[in-house]
Amino acid sequence: MKFCLSSQLQEKLLAQANEIKTKHRQEVKPLLRKFAKAIVIYEIQPNDAVEAFQELNEIGKEFAGRLVCCCQGVEQMAYLHKYYTNFKVYNGFYTTNYLEARACVDYGASYLKPGAPLTHDLETLSRLETPIRLTPNIACEDAIYLPYGIYGSWIRPEDYAIYDAFNVIYEFEDCDTRKEATLYDIYKNKKAWAGPINFLISNLDSNALNRLIPTDLAQERIRCKQKCMANGNCHLCKSYLTLADKELLDKIKYN
Fold first, then answer.
1. C-alpha distances in Å from residue 35, one per residue of 2, 25, 39, 49, 133
2. What pTM value is reported for the model?
3. How many domains are there within the chain?
């Protein structure tokens, strides 16, 4: 398993990370020096301009191949890839269709960051031969009707072996440093979670006990193409999570 961790975590955790991400340009060079085996990802900020890009290009030249910039859209990614060749780039926004995924690859993306339904079609997406960034702890964006989170892009710690087949980097988002450290320990070390799945995954409207969810669900989710949202013919995720629902099980137990 490969993980990208926030630069705000403890050093002992960052020393284990495959990648370290930061929003602060002044941290980039010190991180590259201190964690010599890690790739450092800098999130491009709205006020970054030519001077910032030139500085990053010089840093990238010094630390060849280890600096990657997370861009604010395909257009910015294409621009940086064309004019600044000493660091790598990728689109930091979720890519949700193959037209955009192909454009990212053609414009030099070092990673693809898919959202649904591409997260449910990883066998096809992997044919673009570009490493894939996945966010296991978010089912769907905040604006989406919450019950649909069941059908979203979540990943359980028990499913890592299934997803690792697709050259994946995992990163946790929308959480503070304490929760990120906890999630990292569960996904990287324990590789299991017995409690309610919504304790791990945001915007997942389910009280299902994770230990009761069979691993074969993930085998279907990596290739189902999210048909449930297209034609409503599949209810596998809802069925599995309903059968593992804590409230339902309590009702059965005490009735």
1. 15, 16, 8, 27, 21
2. 0.93
3. 1
